[in-house]
Amino acid sequence: MVPLSRIVAKNLSQAVSTAGKPRSVRPFTNSAKERNDDPVEFRTLNLNPDRKERKRFEERKNVQHDLLPPRAKRMHVDQQWTNVWPAAASFKATAVPLPVRMGKNLNKKAPLDKYGNAELMKIPNFLHLTPTHINIQCAAIKKFCTPWPKELATDADCHRHFPVQIITSDYCHSGQSIRDSKARVVSFKVPLSDLNLDEHARDKFLRLIGNRYDPKTGVVTLISDRCPTRKQNYDYVCYLITALYFESQKVEPWEHEKTVADFEKYRWEGSPSQIATTKLVRKMVESGRFDMGQQESSSAEAADAREGEGAGKGGAPPSEEDMKRFRVVQQYRSAVSELINVGEDHRTVDKYKDSSRSFFFFSSFAVMPRGRPATKKATATAATAAGDATETEAVGSQNGSAEGQAENVVTSNKAKSVDVPEAKEDQQTKETAAKPPAKRGAAAAAKKEEEKASQESDSSKKINGSGSQPKKKVATNGDVTDTMKAVAATTNAKPEAAPATTTAKPEAAPATTTAKPEAAAEKEKKAPKEKAPKKDVLEGERRVLPPRAAKTGQK
Amino acid sequence: MAGFLCILRLAATKNLPPGLFGKQSDRFPWRFSVGAFSSTAELQGTPEEDAARSVSAVSRPSGRRVKLPKRIVRSPTDILDALASTVGKDATGPHYRYVDDPFFIPTNATNRRIFALSKESGRKAARYMVKKYPALFEKPKADPEISAFLAASQLGSQRPTEPTVKDIVDCMRKGALVAAFEAYTELNEKTPEAITPELRQELLERLCFHNSDDAIDSDLLEEKWFAHYIQKEVRRRWKVGGPADKVFQDIKPKTAEAYAAMICANARFLHVEGANTLLEEMQQENLPIPVQVYNEMIKIVPLLKDSIDSRWEMTMSFLSSMNQAGVAPNLQTFNAVLEVISRIAMWRRSRSTALGVFAEMKRCGIEPSLASYHFLLQIFCRERGPISHILLDVLQALEGKELTLRDPKDSNFFPTAMDVAGRHLRDVAVARKVYDLLWTNNNSLFLTDALKDTVFHGNFLKVLVAGESVENFFKVYDELVPMTLVPDSNLLLEMVKMVEFHEEPQHLPRIWSDAVVFGLALKDNMLEPFLAVLLNNHREDLKEAFAAIALDVKTRIDAQFLDRANRIPWSGPVISSVVRLLLRNGQMEPAWEVVGNYINKKTETFGFPSEEALSELVDVLVAAEQPTRVKQCVTLASDLGFMDLVRSAEDLAKRLRLPEQEIQKWKRIGSGSVAASLGNI
């Protein structure tokens, strides 16, 4: 009952006071204290008067605890900090013996100090990553490390030896589950160039992977997240790359049914343009006025390819592959392809114009021999081609057996200025071209000439056989000029090959100089007989090259 | 906060077909994992597999072989272990069971226990809720599933309606032995043939080991640590006629293993008669007695026999019967024998016998454990016996050894050794050696509970107090106090004595502040001697600090709550010391307050202030010309019978230049009092 009365009293008083009314109603009480406190109120009913008035709980004052001083103050100067702060933790002012301050003080005073500073606790700290920590921890786990392979010194080496990259991500959560669905994703990267694909396969591969190939970096990226686990995704990616590879190698029967109209791009190969060009070139070669030895592109590959073929000038008709190597043909091909594939604009049209011109210019020897205009054209061609550093146009058709006008040599300015030995060789070549007119009357030395020519050809063979310059075919029929031109082309083609050439020169040069007059004379003898009208051209050419002739004269 | 870790691996793949990356298959490294990059185990197969595979590769363009070193095999936690080994002891930091914050670092022994056990009781409350509402904890939320998070993992949470053998096994192996026994009883009534003898034996062994109780939860680390405090009341006694006995009766015919389990349990839980009877039964039935039974029986020899000779006789009889039965003794046998010897107080032959046991041990090829050395020290270094330096030999024998726990009593070694070094040998160098041994390797784990920890470190500091220089002592003191050890008032007093002896009183304020923080400052046995020491030091530069201490004493005593049960009253010596210390620094007001409160009986006081204190105070008051206070003091002096002071009352009045009438009054102050009459006699 007593508790009941107390509860009633409490509730009533609360109800009354909360209603905001004066305390007019109070439960009965007999307690003296309450009576004294508030004489107005009713006495509360105390059913057990003997019960002692329970002492009210006295609220204690806020006790000042005796706290330890901040432990930072007890730290020794030589203590090991790694023991105090072994791992990442939020900032603890009492444990950090640094007078750190942070945050803005509104009273324009110094920033707040570290004690109870929430700003310092918010930011990540690196007290667990001091150099000492790193040294100690690295030393501790060093025993699990193996030495880095010496062969993989650079990133480039790594990429070269290990082209495949597999990227996965692991996620750490402080939750009940350690799983994260994002961890299943596997991406597989490989440079396309490291896949061993031919042109057809490459094309097919690229079609199959669609936008998974980045043309800028050349990297194929396969990403799989379709399976629930990483292992499965990894296996799937491996399966994909395998399937893609072999699928791209396949040639389906219907692929042959592809017609020109189906081509996604214009292809010069097999086009009427190519057929026409081939026909033209073949005609020129057959007519013996288009020497393959001279017309090759100056690139090393072409030189390699030509080596040892032994295809004589003018003899057998060149195959299509050979033909593609002709610089002019290549130029023409790219110009035509670009014109159609890229579209007609100033650049492509100009390019087409230039290449067509140059093409017709050299074919003009066969068809329409003319002096000045042709020469002009040739110079123009040379000028346009001058942009190419490796370019040396040795344009001119000659054949020891047939025509006497082998002296038509145009050398690009650039090539001359770049390569001195080459220029010399050119000069020698020009010599041969320049001298014959002067010695036209010396027919008496014909026999000697022949002997020397054979001698010379032997020495040329030696050069080409023994030296490290196997670039050019050797003129087997003892045509000195031809040999010399071959040497010249070689030096043009491969600047680094110059030393070898120069070493070879001492042997070759004397022979050449001695041989030249005779060979040239021989040609000259024949030339007037057969094609007199071409004198104009020769003269024109001579005019082009007076300084060389002068120099040779000095020699 | 969820961070994520991106692992980029340069890797070639094993599943790709040959020829994909080169014309020759050997051009491609099928398997590659470079040191730091390889960390995803999922894709890599087992470490053994990796290690076994010697990986090499041929580069495509240049043809140079890349020789990849073999992976160093390691367990999943090896890296963590290696990193953990770099972390040493943080001298100023609290144990990790406490929060590193001045408010939460306990500064005395009681708080240490309360803080730690409160944390643990939170854990227990959680357990309780799981047990009470198991339905809430049945859904596995964790992945991979953590069985400890589920209600089913709680001891005896399931009470199957139809118990099966599987239930018994499950409950039993989880440690829920009460539930297991219930299930067993039910099943035993219905289908006793379903219970195999092996199951019975296992159940019996587990019941015996835990004295038919549920197993102690191994997760409650703090309870274990403070076990000496908690379990003092509950002395565990063997439950006679309990579940273990019942299961034992069900085993028919009785096997040697069943007997062995019962005898060991009876002996361990101090049911000596039971053990003895069972052993006799076993012998009658001619069953082979295993070595564990002998060990446990030897351990209880002191309980079976009273006299020294009969104890040794009985031990020898057990040993000889072992010998006859061809049972080889083990480490526990020798430790038990040594324990028996150590329990035979003041036996003349104890030392030689103990050495004999050690020699025998060596002959048997058994390496003594720390418990053996512990008993050896107990035998040799008795409190009132001759001083023995055997500890030095023991330390030498232990030097450079990797110590492992091989006997439950191994944990007693370090406290004993420190005790011997401190109280028996009183040698600082030896104590330091023992201390260093504790902190090599993981030896500190041998201090298995709070009591051992406190005893060890307390003894260490006590040795240092007695024998080290002040500077060296405080170096160690800073390392250990208060995080490892909270000193008791005895140690603090000894420190005070040491400081006094070495005449370096500048450390006294520091000792005081420690005493305050550790809650020892106002203790009877601490306060008076400490203030006396302060009073004896007359260093000019320290008087201010000492006065501050005196003022602190005053504030603290006055600030106590009136209703506090164990409040500390003012005592006469304390009043005198405080007053004198304050007056030395010229702080008259607080000094007067102390005496004034005493005079007006505002404070509870035992004893009375000394005459020196009063006269000093009177002098100062006179100088300050405060006649009322001086008069009160003189009156007090007359009440207390300090006649010298009373007699000088007239002089004082004159010095205060009081009117003649007042002087006459002052003269009469002492005359009416008992003291005055006594003085006149």
UniProtKB/TrEMBL annotation, chain A:
Organism annotation: Hypsibius exemplaris (Freshwater tardigrade)
Compositionally biased region (Polar residues): 395-415
Q: Where is the composition biased (Low complexity)?
A: 293-302, 378-394, 434-445, 488-518
In terms of Pfam families, this protein maps to: MRP-S28 (PF10213)
**Ribonucleoprotein keyword on record:** yes
A GO MF term: structural constituent of ribosome
**Start and end residues of each stretch annotated as Disordered:** 18-37, 291-323, 378-555
User: Domain Small ribosomal subunit protein mS35 mitochondrial conserved, which positions?
Assistant: 178-250
Q: What is this protein called?
A: 28S ribosomal protein S35, mitochondrial
Composition bias, kind Basic and acidic residues: at what positions? Answer: 416-433, 446-461, 519-544
Sorted alphabetically, the keyword list is:
Ribonucleoprotein, Ribosomal protein
Q: Which GO terms describe its cellular component?
A: mitochondrial small ribosomal subunit
Q: Which domain of life is it from?
A: Eukaryota
Q: Which GO terms describe its biological process?
A: mitochondrial translation
Keyword check for Lipoprotein: no
What PANTHER family would the database entry show?
A: MITOCHONDRIAL 28S RIBOSOMAL PROTEIN S28, SMALL RIBOSOMAL SUBUNIT PROTEIN MS35
From TrEMBL, chain B:
| Pfam families referenced in this protein's UniProt entry, alphabetically | PPR_3, Rib_mS39_PPR
- Keywords in alphabetical order, please: Mitochondrion, Repeat, Ribonucleoprotein, Ribosomal protein, RNA-binding, rRNA-binding, Transit peptide, Translation regulation
InterPro entries noted in UniProt: PPR_rpt, PTCD3, Rib_mS39_PPR, TPR-like_helical_dom_sf
- Single Gene Ontology MF annotation: rRNA binding
User: Which GO terms of the cellular component aspect does the record hold?
Assistant: mitochondrion; ribonucleoprotein complex; ribosome
Give start-end ranges for the coiled-coil region(s): none
Q: What is its main location?
A: mitochondrion
UniProt similarity note: Belongs to the mitochondrion-specific ribosomal protein mS39 family.
Alphabetized PANTHER family for the sequence = PENTATRICOPEPTIDE REPEAT DOMAIN-CONTAINING PROTEIN 3, SMALL RIBOSOMAL SUBUNIT PROTEIN MS39
Listed name of the protein: Small ribosomal subunit protein mS39
Q: What is the lineage of its organism?
A: Eukaryota, Metazoa, Ecdysozoa, Tardigrada, Eutardigrada
